[in-house]
Amino acid sequence: MTNIRRMTFAAATIAACSILTPLAANAATGCGGASWYALNSKTASGERMNPATLTAAHRSLRFGTKVKVTNANNGKAVVVRINDRGPFIKGRVLDLSKAAAKNIGMVSSGTAKVCYEVIASK
């Protein structure tokens, strides 16, 4: 009887993990619009915004999270650190620093469709 309970528990655990794992993976990725900004004000994390650093704003990712951002139009990618909140415009998922936008070739257009994935969470 004990073996049956163990096997049932193991099967339930495997089933739960297989359902929850894709949800966790989706929370760490996304696609949508991105824009860039170059201010000298303080960010939501308390540090001063520096347009020359590879940083970004996201609505909910923890400050310090490293995110790989890929421009869907040209395939160029950059790794940024989340240090601010935003964007607050419908359809946008990230606001990038000017340096990050330059790395993926979107400075002149101002906006681009991007996909992102969390590579290191703090």
Describe the structure.
This protein has 122 residues and is of the alpha/beta class. Helix content is 26%, strand content 34%. It has two helices and six strands. The longest helix is centred in the first third of the chain and has 26 residues. It is globular and about 65 Å long. About 15% of the residues have low confidence.
Find the structural class using helix and strand composition: alpha/beta
Mean pLDDT score: 85
**DSSP strand count:** 6
Shape: globular
Instruction: Indicate the percent of residues in helices.
Output: 25-40%
Our count of helices gives 2
Radius of gyration over all CA atoms, rounded: 19 Å
Strand content: 25-35%
Largest sheet: 6 strands, mixed, barrel
| Helix-strand topology string | HEEEEEHE
Roughly how many Å apart are the termini?
A: 44 Å
Strand order of the largest sheet: 1-5-2-4-3-6
Q: Give unreliable regions as ranges.
A: 9-26
Sum up the structure in keywords.
122 residues; six-stranded mixed barrel; 2 helices; globular
